[in-house]
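STRUCTURE:
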């Protein structure tokens, strides 16, 4: 049983029977309830999203015009590096874990997550890690400036800010592994009677597969950064050619983590879209079993494509061919998902509340990111586009227009269950249309810049790239301001009040989470429901 049921503190409110739960700061510091921990993950991720967004807007401020305008190249590189790390490890991943904590027990009919205290610990590793990352700007030599990938030999030569980044990555990795263990155990051991694996909601399936990916690859990242740490301070030469090491080995180890990591940030989003589309199409998900198998296929294939990030490192042609074809193969199960979502909508009784708008928007923009990935999979093209803005456009279409839009779809879908209030649809749609327009104004021109040869991670550029950079910068600022609008005009008012939400606010929604009241009470499913 989660919650704290003993003690005489005035901070504790005693209800009837088992419904005893803490209030005040103890409720959050010692939280063992999955909903409270999910809420803390979501608040943390929104905070980091805003910090990472400010760094993005500073990057685009510098790139608005050629010449060094505001920042020295060293500081600019720190902004670029920390923007990536904060968005990936501080915003996108904790947001999906927040969704998992909130929704998985409700969806499988469990009373809580399997390991409540480990759940608390896995969250509280994140704030100190975030402080290390952000605080690294203020130490001698500044923050990590070797890119979010922390490539050796640059990362071996940085100041103490690099050590802070390494420790932050270790803590966030440990948090992810504990969260993954919790999710796997909850899904496999705590499902309601009658809910077989092939009756689970798709969100639970995508998270189950993602959790196995996390356990497989987070230790690989820990290995890579530990080797950097020992090269920096303990005289090893893993990545020093003069001592018999190899800097390219860092890339192999890092990308063996890094490519599955992309799917760690996207698969739970696929799960959210697979919940939202059927609800607003008022039809069951088309091809449920094929969706499960496609998700598992993507996860397995993600382990054999890592060197498509490394076509320019001088690998043999045979290896280039292998990684090229393996990468193209991933398009098949991904395409299965796209077609299944479209087939679910086909001849459905569609309505376009904001959650559905973001889901449809996701399918469109994620497909653009998928196609540019397929183009980059071709080694001869990739060698030309390597480290240009074409690559930046591709992965931002996957992660901003992909992961982030899926998170917004999930937020608009489940927020009534979290807060007990319906969202103001007029404001929500204003947020959607601004996000959809400005995300494309920001990232689509980057394809043109990349094809014209503009390299990424540079604080300055030749004058012929000025026009598209100005368009991109304006788009980025307006996209950023749209998210500030979302926070202050949609999220905070929804927490404070609004129209009362029924237990099932969406007519076509299916699943156990809609059988409990809105907002979901502190304790749910103390007696497991039976799934017929």
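SEQUENCE:
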């Amino acid at each position: 049983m989660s919650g704290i049921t003993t003690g005489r503190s005035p901070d504790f409110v005693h209800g009837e029977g088992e419904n005893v739960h803490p209030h005040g700061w103890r409720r959050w510091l010692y939280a063992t309830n999955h909903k409270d921990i999910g809420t803390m993950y979501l608040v943390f991720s929104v905070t980091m999203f805003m910090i990472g967004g400010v760094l993005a807007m500073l990057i685009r401020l510098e790139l608005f015009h050629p010449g060094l305008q505001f920042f020295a190249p060293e500081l600019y590189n720190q902004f670029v590096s920390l923007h990536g790390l904060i968005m990936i490890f501080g915003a996108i991943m904790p947001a999906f874990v927040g969704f998992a904590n909130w929704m998985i027990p409700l969806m499988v009919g469990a009373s809580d997550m399997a390991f409540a205290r480990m759940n608390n610990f896995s969250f509280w590793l994140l704030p100190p890690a975030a402080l290390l990352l952000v605080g690294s700007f203020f130490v001698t030599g500044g923050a990590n400036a070797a890119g979010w990938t922390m490539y050796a030999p640059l990362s071996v030569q940085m100041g103490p800010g690099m050590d802070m980044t390494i420790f932050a990555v270790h803590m966030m990795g440990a948090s992810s592994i504990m969260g993954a263990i919790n999710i796997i155990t909850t899904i496999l051991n705590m499902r309601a009677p009658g809910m077989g694996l092939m009756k689970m909601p798709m969100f639970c399936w995508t998270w189950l597969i993602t959790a196995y990916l996390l356990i497989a690859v987070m230790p690989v990242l820990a290995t890579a950064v530990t080797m950097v740490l020992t090269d920096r301070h303990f005289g090893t030469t893993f990545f020093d050619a003069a001592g018999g090491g190899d800097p390219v080995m860092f890339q192999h180890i890092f990308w063996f983590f890094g490519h599955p990591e992309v799917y760690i940030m996207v698969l739970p989003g696929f799960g959210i879209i697979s919940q939202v589309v059927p609800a607003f199409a008022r039809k069951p998900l088309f091809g449920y079993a094929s969706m499960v198998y496609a998700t598992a296929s993507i996860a397995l294939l993600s382990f054999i494509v890592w060197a498509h990030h490394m076509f320019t490192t001088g690998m043999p042609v045979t290896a280039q061919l292998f990684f090229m074809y393996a990468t193209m193969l991933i398009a098949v199960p991904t395409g299965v998902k796209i077609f299944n979502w479209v087939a679910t909508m086909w001849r459905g009784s569609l309505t376009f509340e904001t959650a559905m708008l973001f889901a449809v928007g996701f399918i469109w923009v994620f497909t653009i990111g998928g196609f540019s990935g397929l183009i980059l999979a071709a080694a001869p093209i990739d060698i030309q586009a390597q480290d240009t803005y074409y690559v930046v456009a591709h992965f931002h279409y996957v992660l901003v227009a992909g992961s982030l839009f899926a998170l917004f779809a999930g937020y608009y879908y489940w927020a009534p269950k979290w807060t007990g209030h319906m969202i103001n649809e007029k404001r929500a749609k204003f947020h959607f249309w601004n996000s959809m327009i400005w995300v494309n104004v920001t990232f689509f021109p980057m394809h043109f810049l990349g094809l014209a040869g503009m390299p990424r991670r540079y604080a300055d550029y030749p004058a012929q790239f000025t026009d598209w950079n100005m368009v991109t910068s304006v788009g980025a600022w307006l996209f950023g301001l749209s998210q500030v609008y979302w926070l202050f005009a949609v999220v905070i008012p929804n927490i404070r009040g609004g129209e009362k939400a029924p237990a099932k606010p969406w007519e076509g929604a299916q699943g156990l989470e809609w059988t409990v009241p809105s907002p979901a009470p502190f304790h749910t499913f103390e007696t497991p429901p039976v799934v017929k």
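REMARK: Residues 32-248 form a domain with the Cytochrome C Oxidase; Chain A fold (CATH 1.20.210.10).
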